[in-house]
Amino acid sequence: MSPSLTVEWSAATVIFVCSAVFVSAILRGITGFGFALAAVPLISIALSPTQGVVIAVLLQCMIGFRDLPALRHLVARTTLMTLSAGALIGTPLGLMTLYALSADVMRVVIALIVLAALLALFKQVRINPGPRRALAAGMLAGLFSGMAAMPGPPAVAYLLGTSTPALQTRATLTIFFFITSLFTLPGFWVQGMLVQPTLLMALASFPLLIIGTHLGGWLFRQLGDGRYEKAAIAMLGATAMLAALRGVLGLL
């Protein structure tokens, strides 16, 4: 995949990307995770997957600095440290994959990751707790983070398999996603992906991330009875299918 991201963006493209961030932020507010799972496939419909990954990572870094002071006392520190150590190993492998694959192949890969995450949600996949399994889950999360800005599925599967209380699990995942985003930034810089248009797009859409997250939290309180899970899964499935369709058409 070409490292050059200096492209001319139309007003329609900017509006589409900002809308994608807003919709994905609503999902984040509803479930506490899943922002990149929705944002990257949606953004990659209008831009390259590389740009979608970089924008998602930048936004997760920005909102992470806001979340850290509020959540740092709630995290499961040992689990967070072990997952992060694994992510530090896996992230460079993901970055190399992102750099090597073509845009259309990456669209299909991203869609497959999202669909695999959905299947794991349906099947309620859990990883038994333990230091080695936490390290392995962190490595896989780092691989997904560097490749597609999606560290969520392995980390979520591991945390849900422990006896960690729900509030602590949510806080730990939120800070872990922030850490994995920070791990990817040096690789983006080395590969020339942190260019001005992408940085400006992330800055422009950040307020929509905040607003959408708050709106998603309100919807979570309104839906209740588990209906929010169905809404989130439907949203993720739709974005994955759209990204896969665009990628497959590009490969034909």
From TrEMBL:
**Record key words, sorted:** Cell membrane, Membrane, Transmembrane, Transmembrane helix, Transport
User: Where does the chain cross the membrane?
Assistant: 7-27, 33-59, 80-99, 105-122, 134-151, 171-190, 199-220, 232-251
Annotated compartments = Cell membrane
* Main localisation: membrane
InterPro entries in the record, alphabetically? TM_pro_TauE-like, TSUP
Membrane topology listed for this record:
Multi-pass membrane protein
Would I find Transcription regulation among this entry's keywords? no
Family of this protein = Belongs to the 4-toluene sulfonate uptake permease (TSUP) (TC 2.A.102) family.
Q: Protein name, please?
A: Probable membrane transporter protein
Please report the organism this UniProt entry assigns to the protein.
Paracoccus benzoatiresistens
Its ancestry begins with:
Bacteria, Pseudomonadati, Pseudomonadota, Alphaproteobacteria, Rhodobacterales
